[in-house]
Amino acid sequence: MEFNVKVSNVVMRYKDFVALKGVSFTLEQGKVYGLLGRNGAGKTTLLSLLASFIEPTSGTILIGGENPFENSKIMPHVCFIYNTNYKDEDETVMSYFEFAERYRPNFDRDYAKQLATKFKLPLNKPLNKLSNGMQSAFNVTLGLATRSQVTIFDEAYLGMDAPTRELFYQEVLEEQVRQPRIMILSTHLVSEMEYLFDHVLIVNHGHLIIDEPYDEFISRGASVTGEASEVEKFVKGMKQLSMQQLGRTKSVMTYGEINDDAQKEARKLGLEIGPVSLHDLFIHLTKEEEHYETKR
């Protein structure tokens, strides 16, 4: 059974506050999706809807062609991993593995134990005795080892140190080769994680403002650098996200296609056109959208 996701015109309202405003997109098996947004943008609300923790005010969510809410056929195949407070949990790591094995049809205990070894996670230690970093390692171990067709990580790796996060990132890539699934990574660590993404979703003020393959999205960002007056003439009429100037040298970040003819013209003018990172595009596009929303 294919567990592709289709979200259509979803609105989520909490009394007078509208957290999501007519959001629509599809997710396909075998892809890693990067979900980005500033604090309060609507990311966690969206993920909670996908995990069927809550129902939308209006609109539809289909997983495998069915409404997943309270659907015993679908929900065992959707795993939502997020930061959890384990202060009252005295069960051991292995006990949780055994519990997951009973309720998650694709849970692989051997793989979970391999990950525990990789993350130096003690199997017989109670969860409330683990450090924050070890609890985060436990969370991502559960998420990976469930091998759920839809696996969601909502900042679940923040407690881990940089080397351990890198182990997790490499495991994500390798696991997608072994057991392809829909994997959603919601993160503020954009520059650290962007190489993992096949597709980018950006939510801002409850709107889905970007829903594109990573390569296509990144290709539309560019930095134009050179003599200030030449740069100003070249970027006139383009969507400009930011500008920096030092003496007579100016650099402008643009958003939009720069075709081959325009690139040839830039070279004639002595201008350098360079790439822009996902991190920079995210910051400046959400900032601009914020201004737009305020003006409107």
Give a short synopsis of this structure.
This is ABC transporter. By secondary structure, the protein is of the alpha/beta class. It has helices spanning 43-50, 93-103, 109-118, 132-146, 162-178, 190-193, 214-219, 228-235, 260-268, 278-295, and strands at 5-14, 17-27, 32-36, 58-63, 78-82, 150-154, 182-186, 199-204, 207-213, 221-227, 239-246, 249-255, 272-274.
Based on the model shown, name its key terms.
296 residues, alpha/beta, Alpha-Beta Plaits, 2 domains, 13 strands, disordered C terminus, transport, ABC transporter, AAA+_ATPase, ATP hydrolysis activity
Question: Strands, helices and their partners?
Answer:
Elements: E1 5-14, E2 17-27, E3 32-36, H1 43-50, E4 58-63, E5 78-82, H2 93-103, H3 109-118, H4 132-146, E6 150-154, H5 162-178, E7 182-186, H6 190-193, E8 199-204, E9 207-213, H7 214-219, E10 221-227, H8 228-235, E11 239-246, E12 249-255, H9 260-268, E13 272-274, H10 278-295
Parallel strand pairs: 3-7, 3-8, 5-6, 6-7
Antiparallel strand pairs: 1-2, 1-4, 8-9, 10-12, 10-13, 11-12
